[in-house]
Amino acid sequence: MVRFDPTALPADFYADPYPTYTALREQSPVHRCPDGTWFLTRHADLERIYRDRSNYSSDKRVAFAPKYGPGSLLYAHHTTSLVFNDAPYHTRVRRQIVAALTPQTLKALEPTVVALVDRLLDAIEARGEADLVTDFAAAIPVEVIGNLLGVPHDERGPLREWSLAILGALEPVLTREQQEFGERSVREFLAYLATLVAERRRHPGGDHDLLTRLIRDETGGQPLSEHELLHNCVFLLNAGHETTTNLIANGLELLMRHRPELDRLRAQPELIQTCVEECLRYESPNQLGNRLVVAAVDAGGVRLEPGAYLTLCIGAANRDPGAFPDAHRFDIARAPNAHLAFAAGAHACAGMSVARLEARIALLRAVHRFPRMQVSGTPVRAKRARFRGWQTLPVRVK
Ligand code: HEM
After folding, report:
1. What confidence tier does 398 reach under pLDDT thresholds 50, 70, 90?
2. 160: pLDDT confidence band, cut at 50, 70 and 90?
3. Protein residues whose CB sits closer than 6 Å to any atom of ligand 1
4. What pTM was estimated for this model as a whole?
5. What's residue 204's pLDDT?
6. 347: CA distance to ligand 1 center in Å?
7. Pocket of ligand 1, candidates 51, 245, 339, 349: which has the most ligand atoms within 8 Å of its Cβ, to mutate?
8. Fewest 10 Å CB contacts: which of 6, 153, 253, 354?
9. CA distances from 274 to 158, 261, 297, 343 (A)
């Protein structure tokens, strides 16, 4: 029987977690971990659970109280974010965000993303080499989400670090330093946003300003309190950062590793849509989700009792041969591609169109500009089980 403990992962796990996930999926798809939680790896099980709101809850109060301490800011933040709540609170916040992220707002975003990507590529071209994470992938989402929420350019500096610290605190195991860093980051982020919101209340922005729309509350429901508004804006700024950075850097590394696919994309740029979906599937930026069982259920042949805490392994489900023919092959034209990188059901990623827009523009323009781009030096994987990405990805472009 396969042995697996997500709280004690071996150092070589991060380079390639997929053999471990395959073993789990084949031998123990609903795996009982040493700490009593469950780790699920089959696509069909995850899809069913994500779509079932009556038996599975997203409420993390019970899980996070011992992890962060019930009086901590990390606890207040994560338990106020819509993603870690159930209806009716979740529904109320989600409606506001979905109503504010209109197709017109997305359309208006596009030329600014193109201009930004081209500016970054110009700078890389001038140098001939780059770290694709710092110099490219990470520079895009911070600007996009910053533009959406109207964060002034000269105030965007600390956003990425705050975001990494707060989302990093969701890893299965935390050091004391990580916890303190996360706590400090929530405090600073909230203080910053309180000033921004006060300013925006005095001087509302235009139609495409997400923050103004959230403050205004266009759903006709119960408006968000200041506490709810600030924590959910922190979440929005975080949710859009690290995940999209990883999608872009993972995508470029995958294309460089599979050179015929890179050439194919250059020859057939119309494949960019399926290419982005395949990058999302093959190296899912968000590899793990969680749910709490609230009514006794049968999950993949195992009886789970109320209170059981589940980790849903998106990274494993997205390589499940039961859902994807030739699942370990990277195929930029794969269709259909019912990956779970954005989860599914009531909590499916509310920013998926923004992420897709950024990735399509970034990947396509990068491979067109630098057909010979290749990894140079030693790329370093970020050692995180939940958020899969690169810490550094050095490349030569000429
Ligand atoms: C490649 C990039 C992204 C990935 C892989 C991703 C993935 C996810 C996943 C898996 C969830 C569901 C979590 C769960 O219920 O357990 C989620 C939720 C969410 N994401 Fe994303 N996300 C990405 C980008 C973004 C962006 C750019 C934004 C904002 C502009 C965003 C906003 C949200 C929000 C608001 C939720 C909460 C939805 C809810 O609970 O109803 N995400 N995302």
Report:
1. confident
2. confident
3. 58, 82-83, 94, 97, 145, 236, 239-240, 243-244, 247, 285-286, 289, 341-343, 347, 349-351, 354-355
4. 0.96
5. 95
6. 8
7. 349
8. 153
9. 34, 12, 35, 18
